[in-house]
Amino acid sequence: MKRNILLTIIVTLLLTSCASEQRKSNTISLSGAFALYPMAVKWTEEYQKLHPEIRFNVSGGGAGKGMADALAQTVDLGMFSREISSEEIKQGVWWVGVCVDAVIPTISRQNPFIDSIKLHGITREKLRQTFITGSISSWNQLISLRENANIALYTRSDACGAAETWAHYLGRKQENLLGVGIYGDPGLAEAVMKDKFGLGFNNTAYAYDIKTNKKRPGIEVIPLDLNGNDIIDQDENFYENLDELLQAISKGVYPSPPARELYFVSKGQPRKQKVIDFLRWIITDGQQYVKEAGYVPLAEEELKANLTKFK
After folding, report:
1. What angle do CA 93, 290, 284 make, to 5 degrees?
2. Same domain flag for 73 and 60
3. pTM
4. In this structure, are residues 177 and 167 in contact, taking their beta carbons and an 8 Å threshold?
């Protein structure tokens, strides 16, 4: 009797262990960039419709976390939103580009100078003097105004691709950005939204609502005065809805940076066949969901080149 009970316990434990291993082998874990998070969620949802046996664990945390988790092999894939550094390459990172988005300067819809800001825009140099050197600290230094107020400047507190990309556009690195540090893209958008004198930057997916194609309630986007003539010309005016901005990014009218490629990264090429299959699907059939999710697809030549990364 005792022997039968013992055998039953052993069999149960073995079956439980096998089931656990099966679930683990069918699970793909991702973490990292807020910029890629909405797109990654869309891809996982669509992929599960085709492969219901696959489970996904997707979490944000910023590009820095995505890279760290990938290199530590605590996740299958890190979501990453800036250029890969030489130091990361030395640590054995493997990466594949999956889509394109951009970082854009944002203000509150309550800003009392909003009409002048949208009419004149802001040059890269004035943004550099605001975010990097601090020589501009008031709104009438940015644009010609009768009234004035101090700029409430915001940046990201977490290591992230958005801040690094924005700093790169301004000629420096994330640690050089001035402003009150806010964690995460959603947090930064909310901080700017609630402060009528606030100035920050966000990924496109957090400045625009992909369901309505319009700017998120409470957020306004600052147009870049690309030619420096103190007026937003017709060919510089592409911020009213997400489709217009994505088209400008696709054509290269919106500069790169702050337009940038987004990546999945791992420690060496992924070994799990299910991860490889998922990535192959993303850069082939999965590209059909990129525009729908509010991003820009990669060029056909680059997609083909990315397929050769799988040995």
Report:
1. 65
2. yes
3. 0.88
4. yes
